[in-house]
Design goal:
Structural class: alpha+beta
Strand content: 15-25%
Number of strands: 28
Shape: globular
Length: 729
């Protein structure tokens, strides 16, 4: 006998969830997450029948029933009796695709693309479980599996007061004002109609309908005394409408509206997770709710890829910071730490990754031509394995600090959320103290700052999580103002400097690693050749009529001691130390050294410049924006000048000389965070080149050993700590 699911006493309410996972030759594809559809809660109007208006009816018999969909129809026919119901459109897209983006859109639309399938259900008390297998006929050329499995789970609960033991629901996001009241039946039809319009690319028509439906679901979910099952159902419908709303905003060019949609999507999921856990619904589909959150950063990627200018992409990454922060914290709090790391990476240095993908050439005029691939969980594991080094990545959100420690073998450990109170103040104090250390009191004050930073940032990380070899490089990925922190000089709990425990290489994001590794792998083995531009003359005028730059005569006289370390060295000084000296080198040098002055402009970061010789055709200012159009020779570039690693800090990292030089050809930079003394800078440069010219020592380890030597002598931290290694190392 075939009977509708939910057969029972009138007045019972039924909710159900459907999780669709694609299969390929009968094998589920784990990297293609399912899309959860939680059906509308509906009430059994009478014995043995469901009230019309539910999204669809499930019919189960003693054996497998046939499920047959009519392509192009809205209804669904289920079981031998082929009873009609109402089925909302379903969309599914693989995580490995950068959806939304150019056609073909990787989506599964039911029932329009589905053909036939089988179903089997089992009713056990108030629980139902079942499996539906579908065979689809995707449009020609769409790279998708043809076989899908839907797993169905459901419960029925008596309508009425909240069951005993269920805690009060957390507050639901407030519903925006909506004109006439929309009934449950109307909003389902409204949602179905709006989603159909989206799939027909009629975004302007769909958007107001989606807004009305969303307002109705939010109002229903926030109704006082609402049954938890109803609240869960309403919030789930609301959560899975947000991709449609985001797509409309994206296609209509409303990027502020897009970010509002994405923030709302995170808020709804956070509330949904709390409500479902409190009411006992959570374990059945919390993972699927999180899976739906994973695709949200793809909308920002799509927006950014449509922008032609680098500066516009930087602004887009900056504007998305609140969304990525909210998503990262939500996933981290849910214990989805790998997903949280991917979400955090999605919000940092993405325009920089695009720039690196362009290989240092002039920015393409066609939007989207150089968008870096989106990082997924699988891609992140591959990046870490290829990098082959331990990574310590930070995220700072308000007064909370998150830390991920990733080993090359795929082991990922996390710390947090940890208190980050005082972190910003300590960073600002170091920036103020380091350039002006003049007496023992200021030395002690600087040491206190370094101990405080070490206690917050490094001491929480267990030593067992880090390499045991003190010469093995650790890659540190700071976040926000932590990009201003001199990590090698941090004082750890045992009183030692971090550089005494590990060489440190800094990166703005893991997402820049693929381009850097590809660049290094494509080059011939490094030759021991040096190109140095030292003490240019005449020097350019300083900005805003400031104090003229002083000649670096002392460095020029002593630089032959560095040049003599290399079998081949070309040192350009005076008028020859001009921008033209960077071109025409065959074979190219392995190391390029700039011994000059630099100016960092936080307000106009891309006008920051390295001072070279002023000539008739060039004013001597090698600006950050101009470096992007150059092919800077050398795999390692040493920018031995004041504040070459400083600049405006945003979601895309440090905007300034460091970003431009790394994009223009090298894979490793040696930079300074603040003003440096000429004598101390020369000592560090001499020791660094001594080890690089000898070979057998990575740039990160070379800088580390020099700083260890200086720390063990009479040199104080302010003299050597400003030097950092940025890039692969």
């Amino acid at each position: 006998m075939v009977r509708p699911y939910g057969h029972g006493t009138a007045g019972y309410e039924v909710s159900y969830a459907v999780l669709i996972r694609p299969e390929l030759d009968g094998t589920a594809l784990p990297e293609l997450p399912g899309t959860l559809i939680l059906g509308e809660v509906f009430t059994l109007a009478a014995e043995g029948e469901a009230r019309p208006g539910a999204p669809f009816w499930m019919v189960a018999g003693d054996g497998d029933g046939e499920v047959r969909y009519t392509p192009g129809a809205v209804g669904v026919r289920v079981g031998p009796e082929h009873r009609d119901g109402v089925l909302p459109h379903w969309m599914m897209w693989p995580e490995t695709e950068a959806w939304p983006g150019p056609d073909p859109v990787p989506r599964l639309l039911l029932p329009r693309e589905a053909d036939t399938g089988t179903a089997g259900f089992r009713l056990d008390g108030d629980r139902v479980t079942g499996t539906v297998r579908l065979w689809a006929d995707p449009r020609a050329g769409w790279p998708r599996p043809r076989r899908y499995t839907a797993t169905v789970t459901g419960t029925r609960t008596p309508a009425g007061p909240t069951p005993a033991g269920v805690t009060a629901s957390p507050p639901v996001p407030a519903a925006p004002a909506v004109a006439p009241r929309v009934t449950a039946e109307d909003r389902m039809e409204l949602r179905s109609r709006a989603q159909s319009l989206v799939l027909e690319r009629r975004y302007a028509e769909a958007r107001p309908l989606l807004a009305r439906a969303a307002a109705s679901y939010a109002a229903s979910a926030s109704r006082p005394g609402a049954w938890p099952g109803r609240v869960v159902s309403d919030l789930t419908s609301l959560a899975f409408m947000t991709p449609y709303q985001a797509l409309c905003a994206l296609e209509l060019g409303d990027y502020d509206g897009l970010l509002d949609c994405l923030l709302a999507a995170v808020d709804v999921r956070r509330t949904l997770t709390a409500v479902s856990s409190a009411s006992g619904y959570g374990p059945r589909y919390e993972e699927e709710v999180r899976a739906g959150a994973r695709i949200l950063p793809g909308f920002v990627d799509a927006w950014r890829s449509r922008l032609a200018q680098d500066t516009a992409r930087i602004d887009a990454v900056d504007a998305s910071r609140p969304f990525h922060a909210a998503l990262t914290l939500y996933l981290f709090e849910q214990g989805a730490h790998e997903d949280a790391l991917v979400a955090s990476e999605a919000g940092r240095a993405r325009a920089f990754a695009d720039l690196l993908s362009a290989c240092g050439s002039r920015w393409p005029s066609r939007a989207g031509a150089s968008a870096a691939p989106r990082l997924t969980r699988a891609a992140l594991r591959s990046v870490l394995a290829r990098h082959g080094r331990t990574v310590v990545e930070y995220a700072v959100h308000g007064d909370l600090l998150l830390i991920w420690v990733a080993r090359p073998d795929g082991t990922l450990r996390t710390l947090g959320p940890l208190p980050a109170t005082g972190l910003g103040e300590l960073t600002a104090r170091w920036s103020a103290l380091a350039p002006d250390v003049v007496d023992d009191d200021s030395v002690r004050a600087l040491d206190e700052v370094l101990r405080g930073l070490g206690a917050l940032l490094w001491d929480p990380v267990p030593r067992s999580w880090l390499p045991s070899d003190p010469d093995e490089t650790v890659t540190v990925v700071p976040h926000g103002d932590l990009l201003r922190v001199p990590f090698p000089a941090l004082r750890t709990a045992d009183g030692r400097f971090l550089v005494e425990r590990h060489p440190v290489a800094l990166l703005p994001a893991l997402g820049v690693l693929p381009a850097l590794h590809e660049r290094r792998a494509s080059r011939p083995p490094p030759s021991s050749r040096l190109l140095a531009l030292v003490d240019p003359a005449p020097l350019p005028d300083p900005p805003d009529g400031g104090v003229p730059f002083a000649p670096l005569t002392w460095t020029r006289r002593r630089f032959p001691a560095i040049a003599s370390l290399y079998p081949r060295a070309e040192v350009r000084t005076g008028e020859e130390a001009a921008v033209t000296a960077l071109g025409g080198h065959r074979p190219p040098p392995s190391v390029v050294h700039f011994g000059t002055h630099a100016v960092t402009l936080d307000d106009d970061a891309l006008d920051s410049f390295v001072a070279l010789a002023a000539t008739g055709g060039h004013d001597g200012r090698l600006r950050a924006r101009d470096v992007l159009d150059l092919r800077v020779p050398g795999d390692v570039v040493v920018l031995s000048a004041c504040r070459t690693g400083a600049g405006r800090v945003g979601a895309d990292g440090v905007i300034g000389l460091s970003r431009s030089f790394l994009a223009a050809g090298p894979t490793t930079l040696v930079l300074t965070l603040c003003e440096v003394e000429e004598a101390a800078g020369f000592e560090i440069s001499h020791g660094l080149h001594r080890l690089l010219a000898a070979g057998g020592c990575s740039p990160a380890l070379a800088l580390c050993r020099v700083q260890r030597e200086l720390a063990a002598e009479v040199y104080r931290p302010h003299e050597w700590s400003p030097f950092l290694l940025y890039g692969l190392g």
